[in-house]
Amino acid sequence: MRYLITDLYVIIDSNDNLVDPYGYVFIDKRDASTHMTNNWDKKTQKEDGIKVSKLSDLLGVV
Q1: pLDDT recorded at residue 47
Q2: Each residue of 10-45: pLDDT tens digit?
Q3: 61 confidence band (pLDDT: 50, 70, 90)
Q4: Which of 28, 32, 43, 45 fits as disulfide partner to 50, beta carbons 3.0 to 4.6 Å?
């Protein structure tokens, strides 16, 4: 199955670094958010600026 880069989500920190240790790329924002919540507590998310972002935004693709 193929997906457009504009439909993919990743987990990044405040410096736009990919932080998922497995390198997962998600096709659904909800799945990415659930994975983030299961792997980083709220304090760490806030301190490190961990969030879900569109891969296309990270790469600067319009």
Answers
A1: 96
A2: 999 999 999 998 899 999 999 999 999 999 999 999
A3: confident
A4: 45
Q: CA–CA separation, 14 vs 7, rounded Å?
A: 21
SS3 for 4-32, per residue?
Answer: CHHHCEEEECCCCCECCCCCCCECCHHHH
Examine residue 37 and state whether it is found in any structural domain, yes or no.
Answer: yes
Token pair listed for 38: 């299961």
Question: Helix, strand or coil for residue 53?
Answer: strand
Q: Check residue 41 and give its pLDDT.
A: 95
Domain of 10 in residue numbering reads as: 5-57
- Among candidate residues 61, 14, 60, the one with its CA nearest the CA of residue 40: 14
Instruction: Name the domain count of the chain.
Output: 1
Residue tagged 């600026």 (tokens): 49
